[in-house]
Amino acid sequence: MSQTIRIAMDAMGGDFAPAEPVKAAVLAVNERENIKMILTGNQAQIEAELAQYEYKKDQISIVPTTEEISCNESPVDAIRRKKDSSMVVALKMVKNQEADAFISSGSSGAVLVGGQVLVGKIKGVERAPLAPLIPTTKGVSLLIDCGANVDAKSHHLVQFAKMGSIYMKHIVGIENPKVAIVNVGAEEAKGNALVKETYPLLKECKEINFIGSIEGDEVHTGKADVIVCEAFVGNVILKHAEGLSKTLIGVIKEGLMSTTRSKLGALMIKPALKQTLKAFDATEYGGAPLLGLKGLVVKTHGSATSKEIKNAIFQCVQFSEEGVNEKIKEQLFPEQNA
Amino acid sequence: MSQTIRIAMDAMGGDFAPAEPVKAAVLAVNERENIKMILTGNQAQIEAELAQYEYKKDQISIVPTTEEISCNESPVDAIRRKKDSSMVVALKMVKNQEADAFISSGSSGAVLVGGQVLVGKIKGVERAPLAPLIPTTKGVSLLIDCGANVDAKSHHLVQFAKMGSIYMKHIVGIENPKVAIVNVGAEEAKGNALVKETYPLLKECKEINFIGSIEGDEVHTGKADVIVCEAFVGNVILKHAEGLSKTLIGVIKEGLMSTTRSKLGALMIKPALKQTLKAFDATEYGGAPLLGLKGLVVKTHGSATSKEIKNAIFQCVQFSEEGVNEKIKEQLFPEQNA
């Protein structure tokens, strides 16, 4: 029997909290026995949500908190001051090893700050990148970094490449994952100052399988398994993908409703289309981990549904079972284990 | 009667040259009387292409050249050394006022270098940005800068905002165009060092209608008419839009072919879908101008078809008739006209 994984969940974070996080916890424990969910947040509200469902009572517990962190406040101030917030309390449980993982759909900035400040980075890790899996025609690729630590230096990007490779190998199961750097041309001489400085460092890095540059139009082709970029660029790509997909699908739906003939056709294609678009749906891929921390911290989208959060919970289990952060520590800093 | 516009076209540039550029010239002159096309390139090849079509002979002429610039050579070296290339000869015609505009589907880098070196920037313009129109759900927005001059400074971005506003007003006909800067959050305090430095400058700039930040997911919503960014980011967005659209439409097409029922439905929706996707098709918007030059330089996509190039030719006519570069000069540097 596999070991039980304890997951501290910020039940008050996200656009649909506490409803969706609580429902996700219920779905997760009803599907798997080796998960214990610890929900932090407003006790009355969480209990009211839980009352709607049948679930295994011993797998879900509540740690009542009195404060919440919103997306409109300074992440640094909020993490420092709101000591009894659902986020801070859950993060501290990971720090104190009372939980194996942390999940929140709340303020990205606060998760990033809280993860680094409260859980702490592995010794030697300079920055903890936020690394979501994005859909490609061949499966998924890791886009690293999409976090809030912008203006990275070349040595940060090299660490991202290494951590991303370990993640793709152990979580997604890709042997010798291909690493590329986001660039504006294929040649080594192309790029901005940061990319020009980073490219040769990646090229000479023996721990990774560096294949060169990846341009904007290649991001979703599966050309690279680990797509390395500075966080400003990563954030723009991630949000652009989300916005453009939504826009395009909206445009297509509108087109389908434009004539009687197309309306009939739309009914006929609906099941097949739904199936295919599902394969390209970000909600299937769960949350984005903050890599390189001493514990597991996962950020789900602000508008994440219970299904998406449930997937992120399962991802945490795998992440924890595979010991990815431990592998990062071992492989990036072997001297620490000597 | 409107004035005749003389357009020097690099007939050897692009993936389908000289076939597509030559066909575009034929389509353009057969549709409009006030255009004269001057095709630079290999005379025999151009004549062979022209021989396939009926067209008004006095509206197309050839200037034979012996060299070509490829996408694989250094733009700076190529522009300097290949003096008898189709691109350099056509650009020089604009410089010498033997042509009113230049169009090429060839090497972007060479067009950018050649435009700035051979045609020259308006006095006071620090950088000439490449500014394509991108599709939005409400029409089009100008993405400025997508060129090869990466690592811009804040004062460059302020000039881009001003030039882009003049373009959107006079070419696209939008009164008081809304200007936004690409960012990773909505608040003024968000962003990388460049954006944080540029934001207050745009805010206090009286000549433009600055509305704040625009995030990746808002790029195609029409929130802003002029989307200002540094060229690395602009290039990534532009190519990402192209790649993701192609991928998504491919995924959808595959889905439509997956069952017998969906195949039948696909036949029924085809006309309506074609119509809608056309509205979202980059080929409708012609070429991207290099703004702020002493003459008109337009870059069409490397894989541009004759239809796309023809649209770019018509755009040149409008650009020339509206005197956008003159307006940039007048409005950005009124002291030069004093």
Summarize the structure in words.
The structure is a homodimer of 338-residue chains. Chain A starts with a strand and ends in a 6-residue tail after the last helix. The longest helix of chain A is centred in the last third of the chain and has 26 residues, at 231-256. The first copy, chain A, is of the alpha/beta class. Chain A has a six-stranded mixed beta sheet, with helices on both faces. Chain A has a five-stranded mixed beta sheet with strand order 5-6-9-7-8. Helices cover 44% and strands 15% of the residues of chain A. The first copy, chain A, has helices spanning 19-31, 43-50, 75-81, 86-95, 108-119, 154-170, 193-203, 231-256, 260-279, 306-322, 324-332; strands at 5-10, 35-41, 60-64, 101-104, 133-136, 139-144, 178-182, 209-214, 226-228, 288-289, 296-299. Chain A has eleven helices and eleven strands. At the A-B interface, helix 8 and helix 9 of A face helix 8 and helix 9 of B.
